[in-house]
Amino acid sequence: MTLDVEWAERWVRTAADAVTANRDELTELDRQIGDGDHGANLDRGFRAVVTRLDEVAAAPDGGPAQVGDVLKLVATTLMSTVGGAAGPLYGTAFLRASKVCGREAIEAPSVVAMLEAALEGIEARGHARTGEKTMVDAWQAAVDAAGKVAGEGGDGVAVLRAAADAADAGATATIPLVATKGRASYLGERSAGHEDPGARSTALLLRAAVVAAEAADPA
Ligand code: ADP
Ligand code: MG
């Protein structure tokens, strides 16, 4: 299928549903190594994103024209509604991603560029690198897997699928790590044994992109 504006809108709505469905799990993860607000923070943010998308889609000029327009709407809404560490981090990720998606539809190379831009934004904002038990661990795994599959000639959906699978594994791989960035780092060694909430939410968001692509009618 084509990763077009309709896909991008469906991604956002699917992501919002996934965040709501997993809100309590994310909150519980954050309760273990943070302050227990990650699920509620993201849920509030994505509810606002869906409301904003509905408003924009109903506007006389007919809604977003480019994939990047949808991602930018996500960015600005998350920045103004999520707060905490995750608001600015995800906001920057989606803003950087929007800048490389100024097209009606994106293909495999742009999917890779979108993920790379998101990761760069998160790194620029939070100064974390892989292995510090943050969302970077999931994003970095996603970027690496996406680049590999695109290099092998995979299409955009195959690249997304590889990214989502890798983000999932990257999130799970944060369990034994000791946090050295963010609130969880206050726990030191006691942060080991728990999954990082932001890495888990990253995996959810990227999975939603795949589900949105697969939901398209192939006819
Ligand atoms: P807060 O920590 O302010 O309560 P959230 O609970 O919404 O914010 O988000 C916590 C998540 O943010 C962590 O699980 C981690 O993935 C991510 N995070 C925190 N600090 C950083 C950082 N410096 N770089 C990358 N990600 C970070
Ligand atoms: Mg928190």
Describe this structure as you would to a colleague.
The chain has helices at 5-21, 23-33, 38-57, 67-81, 86-99, 108-126, 135-151, 156-172, 197-214, and strands spanning 3-4, 105-106. It is mainly alpha-helical. It has a single domain, classed as DhaL domain (Serine Threonine Protein Phosphatase 5, Tetratricopeptide repeat, Alpha Horseshoe). The protein is globular. The structure holds adenosine-5'-diphosphate and magnesium ion. Adenosine-5'-diphosphate (ADP) binds next to helix 3, helix 5, helix 6, helix 7 and helix 9.
What descriptors fit this protein?
mainly alpha, binds adenosine-5'-diphosphate, 219 residues, 9 helices, binds magnesium ion, Serine Threonine Protein Phosphatase 5, Tetratricopeptide repeat, two-stranded antiparallel sheet
CATH architecture: Alpha Horseshoe
Overall mean pLDDT stands at 96
* Helix fraction by DSSP (H/I, runs of at least 4): 55-70%
CATH homologous group name = DhaL domain
Run of helices and strands: EHHHHHEHHHH
Sheet with the most strands: spatial strand order: 1-2
Distinct small-molecule ligands in the complex: adenosine-5'-diphosphate, magnesium ion
Number of domains: 1
- pLDDT under 50 segments (min length 5)? none
**Structural class, please?**
mainly alpha
